[in-house]
Predict the structure.
Amino acid sequence: MKVSAEYLQTLQNRIEIIGNNIANVNTPGFKEGLLFIEETYNAQERSNTKAFFGGVVPGSEEFPTLESNLYVGQRIDFRQGPLVETDLPLDIAIYGEGFFQVKTPDEQIAYTRAGSFKTDESGSLVTNSGMLVQPYTEIPSNVSGISVKSDGTIRGIIDEEVTDLGKISLYKFENPHGLEQIGGNLFLATPATGEAIMGDADSEGFGTIMGGMLERSNTDIVNAMTKLIEAQRAYQFDLRVAKDQDEMMVQAIQMRG
């Protein structure tokens, strides 16, 4: 009964993750959530499993270890999403490794692959939701012909002269699977990721910046729908097994009574 209940919860988690993937199929820069299930029977096996899966996993104060033989490890699929041309100069996609760095309203430093940027009233480069892009960049109001180079350099024309307006840096992690998802297509660094490594786009180890383009979600909608159906059927089957076990227990008690 206990195993069935735990497995039902695992399947429910899987359904929620797949459902979130499907809901964000049109979200720029979205990275698909994954769920791995593996049986472990002792502390050493559990430890090895954590090392194998990586990521933010049960076993810390924030993510207590499950008291069962079912280990659930959640990871993020950071495969490249397809690029789509928008012709908006401040729409920026990363082709390859790296994240943009932004400052959240509560002053946290977060990371995202969503490069749909704009300027606010003061000319600061911000995300669509108004978060400041880091390092801070200000775009003058009298600029025209804005373009973004492959290394992240933002250029524009001021008084008929081509001027460098700023440069967008990229950031990467030794273990990106350890990033904590906080919603809004944002991630936070954790002890599992290590410190963020800052670098120039189009340099060794970092992706290339593509101006006037956005990276689409890497969710495969057909594959996601198939997985959702499989998980729902497995959930229904295990629910029937649990119900049958419950009925058998009631009958056994009645016969014994």
Q: What stands out?
A: Confidence is low (pLDDT under 50) at residues 38-72. The longest strand covers residues 33-39. Residues 2-79+222-256 form one domain. The chain has two domains: 2-79+222-256, 83-215.
